[in-house]
Amino acid sequence: MNDTNLSAKLNCPISSGEYEKILIAHGGGGILSHDLITKLIQPQFSNEYLDVMHDSAVFGINKQRFAFTTDSYVVKPIFFPGGDIGKLSVYGTVNDLVCAGAKPLYISVAFIIEEGFPIEDFKKVIASMREAAEFARVKIITGDTKVVEKGKGDQIFINTSGIGLVYDEVNISPKNLAIGDKIILSGKIAEHGIAIMSSRESLEFETKIVSDAAPLNGLVEEVFKVTKNIHVMRDPTRGGIASALNEIVKSAKKEIVIDELNIPISEEVKGACEILGFDPLYIANEGKLLICLPRSESEKVLGVIKNHPMGRDAQIIGEVTDQNSVRVLMKTIIGTKRIIDMISGEQLPRIC
User: Fold this and answer.
1) CATH code for the domain defined by 174-339
2) pLDDT in tens, 53-94
3) Of 30, 89, 107, 304, which one has the greatest count of Cβ atoms within 10 A?
4) 303: part of which helix (H) or strand (E)?
């Protein structure tokens, strides 16, 4: 079957003529990822839950709302400063549920293991998952294991799904974004991606950079104690805060302006990015949170976040400014403004 017939059968374009095969950048959280999902995948499965395009689907059963999510983890190396693929898979699933306004409850796990993978390493991974689940107060209640021939995988891949109970009176959706909303970032950016890269390439810096992988449910529970009036939450993983903010504005059809001076980043990470030629705005985080909320709630919520161990470096980094311009702008250190778009390629493959 040729491309034209296949495209017609799918009722959507499968390529622009430039990309007729999947590229590594299609999994990087940037423009190609967005196009793959919105132009090829979403049209085939379109429904009222999927079309919200959030990290979790929210649905109701007997007047109770639940959030459901799934994710796969292919990080390389599987052990890195501050974590490993097991811990990452649990925390990533927990955080996707949290960003839908849910209390995470249960997780499934499926392992795809390459023949020859050391049993001792597998023990470390599953022990790490158990510890992470206990720390995040969730239970792993079902799963699956498959083994593929040597050379047909890369050590171990993990798929997880999670389900949580949505808090009463909480309604998280990009559609709720409003002019004047403030944007809070819960801490320093780009630590996970740089930790992965330094480990992968055996890079050494004066201060060891470790992944920020952590569960966000405890932090968000504290926020919900003071207000349920939160419009949008997003954990900026693949593609960093730049891609996460762009996903929000594309769904909300509004403009966000952020201030470079207010974006928390460590000197070590900033220096590493300069050496490696990376833009930290596009580098993955695994324990940070973006919160969009009314101006009237922002200082109160910021104070609560700063009082939590995971939010001590939190800052208000921007606001929603326009409903007629769908873009993310950044006020630079020198006082100019530049457009922050989704990254077109892939800075760091295999980081989660």
Assistant:
1) 3.90.650.10
2) 888 999 999 999 999 999 999 999 999 999 999 999 999 999
3) 89
4) helix 295-306
